[in-house]
Amino acid sequence: MTIGKSRLREVAQVGVIAGLAGGLVEVAWISIYCAISGVPVDLVAQEVTRSIAPYALYSSVWAGILIHLILAVGLGIGAALAIRLLLLGYGRVSAEFSLVILTLATVWAVNFLLVLPYLNPHFVDLLPYSVTLASKLLFGLAAATVFRIERLVLAV
């Protein structure tokens, strides 16, 4: 099945919103964890930058947040497209939420078990796996909620 050009644009727009929602939920979650645990939140943001640009002379907090949100938007668009293609015509909310959360759990596993240990081992050790996994699952919950709201609005 294919998606028309105008529908593709709509799906991408919803993906941007879902990605921003998920990315901001992650920032909030990690900020709360860091405030409670004493891990410097600025160090987490700086390590995001170092994961993408390991030889950068300066690694700012804002650059880390910007990189994180750009990646989150890309992930949101990808999830939106996947949902539209895989669940086309399938109206069950549980399937939509399950697919998004499963996708984000897979993204976490690939990132923290395969990619980041090679790119930036310090980043992997900065926060407990449970905290980073919860972060991705919260992203999935936020993104799935945006997708669901969008479908409810379209149904009206």
Describe the structure.
84% of the residues lie in helices and 0% in strands. The chain has one domain (5-155). The longest helix is centred in the N-terminal third of the chain and has 33 residues, at 5-37. It is elongated and about 45 Å long. It has 6 helices and no strands.
List the topology elements.
Layout (H helix, E strand, L loop, with lengths): L4 H33 L3 H12 L8 H26 L6 H27 L1 H6 L2 H27 L1
Helix pairs in contact: 1-3, 1-6, 2-3, 4-6
Beta-strand content estimate: under 5%
Number of E-type strands: 0
Structural class: mainly alpha
Question: Distance between termini?
Answer: 25 Å
Q: Helicity level, as a percent range?
A: over 70%
Distinct helical segment count: 6
Chain-averaged pLDDT: 89
Shape: elongated
- Low-pLDDT parts are none
- Count of spatially separate domains: 1
Reading the helices and strands in chain order gives: HHHHHH
Key structural traits:
mainly alpha, 0% strand, 84% helix, single chain, 156 residues
Give a quick precis of the structure.
The protein has 156 residues and is mainly alpha-helical.
